[in-house]
Design goal:
This protein is α+β, with helices and mostly antiparallel strands and 242 residues long. 38% of the residues lie in helices and 19% in strands. The strands form two sheets. An eight-stranded mixed sheet has the order 1-10-9-2-3-6-5-4. A two-stranded antiparallel sheet has the order 7-8. The radius of gyration is 19 Å and the shape is globular. It starts with a strand and ends in a 12-residue tail after the last helix.
């Protein structure tokens, strides 16, 4: 689960301002780690495009820690769990750890936690649920490193549950499969995507357009679109030419 000094952190960033955040949060008694795409891409030997971080501090605690260090923060849109932190010329998004709980109405709700594995369990794919600190220590709760090495793109836990939380995850699955998948597509994931494809009609056209545009830029777009077509998923996101 924990791999010491496993990652060359310069693949994510060498910006001293970004790395300073780790010292600030640690001085406040918290922990912060790189997460998601930045870690995944670095592990795959790619240069990280976007840098996202997670912390066990609450948004209020994070804001106070940064304020004491003279660093400006601001909420990111409607994301009440995420602060934008300005360091030098870089705006970082730092999210507080969250877990899923059952609300009084029976629906799944989210609340803050200090448990990293609980936060990882909420993420969509195993390869997107790997964390790393500034020393290159990697924290992998769902075998994301092994899946990345073997080209397995799969959901965390029950694929149907993950998709129903956000139907856009169907398109995200195919985007990451096109970029990182090797060999046949994961059967459970594909079945869940096919069974839940009607949920795509509940999404805004803007979200679908933006995610589909990303698929078109992936490495294996042709074969991936063929899989989506054969499983009657494209018809739910592309307009009828008639």
């Amino acid at each position: 689960m924990i791999r010491d000094n496993y990652l060359d952190i310069s693949r994510i960033t060498a910006d001293p301002g970004v790395l300073k955040i780790f010292k600030i949060i640690r001085g406040y008694g918290g922990v912060v780690r790189f997460v998601g795409g930045a870690v995944r891409d670095a592990l795959a030997g790619l240069k990280a495009a976007n840098i996202d971080l997670s912390t066990d501090l609450s948004p209020d605690e994070l804001a106070e820690a940064c304020e004491e260090a003279g660093i400006r923060t601001a909420p990111i849109g409607l994301k009440i769990d995420t602060l934008g932190v300005a360091v030098g010329g870089t705006l970082l998004e730092i999210s507080s750890l969250k877990k899923q709980v059952k609300g009084g109405n029976g629906r799944t709700e989210v609340e803050f936690t200090d448990n990293w594995e609980e936060d990882a369990s909420r993420r969509d794919l195993t390869i997107n649920a790997v964390y790393a600190d500034e020393k290159g220590n990697v924290f992998d709760y769902y075998n994301g490193i092994e899946d990345l090495e073997q080209g397995n793109v799969r959901f965390i836990g029950n694929p149907n549950h993950r998709i129903k939380e956000d139907y856009l995850r169907i398109l995200r699955f195919f985007r990451f499969y096109s970029n990182f998948g090797q060999g046949p597509v994961d059967k459970k994931a594909l079945e869940a995507c096919r069974e839940n494809r009607e949920g795509l009609t509940t999404l805004s056209m803007e979200r679908i357009r933006d995610e589909f545009a990303k698929i078109l830029l992936t490495k294996n777009v042709v074969s991936t679109l063929r899989i989506m077509f054969e499983n009657d998923i494209l018809s739910f996101i592309l307009p009828d030419p008639q």
